[in-house]
Amino acid sequence: MSLLEKAVDSMKKIFPEVPWKVRLSYHGQSRSFGSGVERTWIDFHHPAPLRRLAWYDIAGFLDHYVAGRADLNGDIYGFVGLRMHVKRHEDWTVDAFRKIRFVGTTLFPSSVRRKLVAVSSHYDLPNEFILSYLDQRTRAYSCAMWKDADNVAFPEDEPLEDAQHRKFHQAASALELQPGDKFLDIGCGYGYMVNLAEREFGVKDALGITLSRNQVEQGYSKSMRLAHYYELPAEGAYDKIFTCGMVSHLDRSEIERYYRHVYGLLKSGGRLWMHGIVPPALSASVTNYTTISGTFSQRYVFPDHYQFPVHEHLKVMEKIGFRVREVRFKYGHYAKTLRHWYKRYLENLPNTRPLINPTIERAWHLFLTYGSVVDGPWSIIKQILATKD
Asked: Is-above-0.90 flag for pTM?
């Protein structure tokens, strides 16, 4: 059996019921699986990605795809969606390799320098590229809050700009922002929340910190600076603290240190609002971190990106002394946000393609496709309101 035939045989076992034909081509030879009309085809330019598929190693195949050794053509969106119905059929050696690769990314403790490099390498991509798919009102790089998260039809029922603004306004209301507050936004992005606090809630003493130089230079507020949260003295200076997406940059070794420092930053009676993505509570196994949203995302899209079930956050927060006042779970909002980003990404790709290298283009195209189809529906937004009493 040729390598091409082995790869097709593996794909048939991984995807036993494909409602259209998928063709694999290599060196002038082609083989197909599925039924009906051909909608997707994969062209291989090197044997390495074929070997990955023959080993049932889709993550390994994607590494080679990003490197340009294979091309996905036709209905990529639909093909990626088939991952929702994948049949687990993996050699034990492949599973062991994935676990080793996961453990290797978590054994080494975090450092300020590494976080700076990781975050800046991501957010300091060309501004025109990043902004091409974000909303133009807030430039928020996190999940929006929709009026109707279940309505995902692309004749937009609500602009992305409005849904992003709603997220920040809801947080400001939950924090009960007032003119006399000293306010801090950790991981402030382009500073929309800081600007909102100043403009709509009359806050005179606000600060937003980020590790992205681009965001500071292009931000909405002058009350922003390039800084790591640990550089701020834990002297109980802030009445209200907001953090959106920041916890995704923390590994397990850093979670307690982070919450302890945030606790120290708050005044007695101060309020914390945290917004972030968590996986389903029962999926905290190693395999949760080795999907496209895990290994692939950490390597190509979100360096140093982690997700932990919400109970791990709550346990640490309560241990430190926070009183958790409210926990909200939001379903469907992340998937809808990603679909809007994906749509804008494709619309603007002819203009942004010259700004990025082919590896970045391939990685982001795949990430936004996969995230909106597969990860989005399973990802949960958690919102936690806690106080320092």
From this structure: no
